[in-house]
Specification:
Number of helices: 4
Mean pLDDT: 93
């Protein structure tokens, strides 16, 4: 007997996704990487939840050409990609790219579920803060 509650959650998620799409529509896609840390650093590839949220928020995942969901990369590869924004899971970036704008991604957005709509808004706000003023 939870169909009504489920429908309400789904409607809220869709409303948030539609809001994000409307806000970022027409804005230039920023080149973004989700850096998970590690030695070597790991990034989010295509076909992941975070990748989908980044794209929905008006970003181009600079590592969407790699195979796999989560991929270790060399620092050289991170440095040579044209990156506008680094989203991090740990809040730190290698010193070699510390001059690139970087912000920690709240852990609340890293898990798919009923909070997906708010996660999409959070990531879009980090990518395109001007769309939420």
């Amino acid at each position: 007997d939870a169909a009504a509650a489920a429908d309400s959650i789904l409607a809220g998620i869709q409303e948030a996704l539609d809001d994000v799409a409307a806000r970022v529509n027409g804005l230039p896609h920023r080149k973004v990487v989700y850096l998970m840390g590690g030695e070597p650093p790991w990034v989010t590839g295509p076909r992941t939840y975070i990748h989908e949220l980044m794209v929905a928020g008006g970003a181009e995942n600079v590592f969407d050409d790699l195979e796999g969901l989560y991929i270790p990369i060399s620092l050289e590869e991170l440095i040579t990609r044209e990156v506008d924004l680094i989203l991090t899971s740990e809040g730190t970036v290698p010193p070699q790219v510390s001059d690139v704008e970087h912000v920690p991604l709240p852990s609340s957005v890293e898990v798919p579920g009923p909070g997906l709509g708010e996660a999409a808004r959070t990531i879009a706000r980090l990518i395109h803060p001007e769309a939420f003023r």
